[in-house]
Amino acid sequence: MVVTPASATAAPAPPTARVEIDGLCAGYARRPVLHGVTATVPAGAVTALVGPNGSGKSTLLSALAGVLRPTGGTVRQPPDSRPAFVPQRGTAATALPLTVRRTVAMGRWAERGPWRRLTRADHAAVESAMARLGIADLAERQLAELSGGQHRRALIAQALAQGSDLLLLDEPGTGLDADARAGIDALLCDLAADGVTVVQATHDLAAARRADHVLLLRDGRLHAAGPPRTALTADTLTALWLTD
Ligand SMILES: Nc1ncnc2c1ncn2[C@@H]1O[C@H](COP(=O)(O)OP(=O)(O)OP(=O)(O)O)[C@@H](O)[C@H]1O
């Protein structure tokens, strides 16, 4: 594995870790995927998970989200950590008669519970999340009537409405046009500047280069880690995509 320092000369203080991953092994029935991954996710920064198809990015996100139990190693997070997770294949039931506003409001359930009335602050969080994702004008539309990109933005807004300090996104730019992708990119930077820790799995190398930190996976193992300038080199990328 290649671990690249931020700078060969300066010695900046190491960033605080929001998540510490130590020797993580995880996978599915009879299919081990992650093999002893050790890495840190810096707090209040954007981390990009990069790697070829099947390298284990989604599996790692699921383990960070707590929806996949490790078979070995540990994922250390602050107690009571409640990450907001947007999986690649959305879980919101499009068959249900749900408006976009109602879908985004479900993001408040973790805090409020599904049966309690939402407070004024909850409603403000929902409106703010829709506005930041550029879907305020779709608030009363049915989820089933949305385009793929609009649906994706609604699910990201739902995660944002949770107000979690850890946002996990599986390929958030998939299905979005260039403007919407740029908007998501800018949003993730803003969130990190506000102290939110963002982890996104992405095939978009340009987006990965704009991240603060990169974890490169290959065959379920950490191949490189560090800031993009040093982790996404021609050598590491060639090793990932052009060799067996
Ligand atoms: N629910 C599942 N049950 C069994 N195997 C799975 C499941 N989900 C993923 N896998 C397998 O685990 C391996 C890693 O998949 P994963 O989705 O984590 O990779 P990825 O890097 O996110 O890929 P992609 O870039 O294609 O999204 C693959 O071999 C995949 O077929």
Automatic annotation (TrEMBL):
This is Metal ABC transporter ATP-binding protein. Pfam families: ABC_tran. Gene3D superfamilies: P-loop containing nucleotide triphosphate hydrolases. The lineage of its organism: Bacteria, Bacillati, Actinomycetota, Actinomycetes, Kitasatosporales. Belongs to the ABC transporter superfamily. Keywords: ATP-binding, Nucleotide-binding, Transport. The keyword Hydrolase does not apply. PROSITE patterns: ABC_TRANSPORTER_2. Residues 19-244 form the ABC transporter domain. Signal peptide: none annotated. GO terms for molecular function: ATP binding. It comes from the Bacteria.
